[in-house]
Write a structure and sequence with these properties.
The chain is mainly α. Helices cover 64% and strands 0% of the residues. The chain contains ten helices and no strands. The longest helix has 26 residues. The mean pLDDT is 88.
């Protein structure tokens, strides 16, 4: 379609309104690329999908996705072999994947169904329940990696604690020593 016609129809304003309903930044960027359908079959398919979604929303709870704000960078970093994600990024990704699975179950169990278009879209979503559980088991709610996340981490943290205790004892003995105690006002 000609750009002048799109401007006359204020299509950009329509896209902005539709984009405001996006649940994720990735969804918003995809919706920003919307163009009018010029093929009759594509337009009918899109209209049927829209009608199905409206029917779903009229009879069921709205879709919810727990998406971290920087999901694009998380996914980009995830694709780079050997690049580690921060604990917060991993927890955000786990929450997002869990919410996708919850949404998938909601569509399957939805009232006033079936919803074949929605189910087709969600059937391609794989379950990551084992991986998200593992992330939650190894990263606490304060986004700290727990000591038992791995045997190696446990060993390193134990060694660090032993070294800290030795250093503390050395400093305490130094502060209690006859030669240094007289120069100190307080042992703090």
């Amino acid at each position: 379609m000609h750009e002048g016609a799109l401007r006359a129809l204020e299509f950009d304003r329509i896209v902005e309104v539709v984009k405001s309903f996006a649940l994720t930044p990735l969804g918003a960027s995809q919706l920003a690329k919307l163009r009018p359908q010029t093929d009759m079959r594509s337009a009918q398919t899109a209209l049927a999908a829209t009608t199905e979604c409206v029917t779903y929303l009229d009879s069921n709870n709205p879709f919810t996705l727990d998406c971290p704000p920087k999901i694009e960078s998380i996914l980009t970093n995830l694709a780079i072999e050997g690049l580690a994600l921060a604990a917060g990024q991993l927890r955000g990704l786990a929450d997002f994947l869990t919410s996708v699975e919850t949404m998938q179950k909601a569509v399957i169990q939805a009232k006033a169904g079936p919803f074949p278009t929605l189910r087709t879209m969600l059937d391609g979503c794989r379950s990551f329940a084992r991986e998200t559980k593992e992330i939650r088991d190894k990263i606490d709610d304060c986004l700290h990696i727990v000591d038992d996340a791995s045997m190696e981490l446990r060993s390193i943290r134990d060694q660090l604690q032993k070294q800290t205790n030795r250093l503390q004892k050395t400093l305490d003995s130094y502060l209690r020593g006859k030669d240094t105690a007289r120069y100190l006002q307080e042992r703090v």
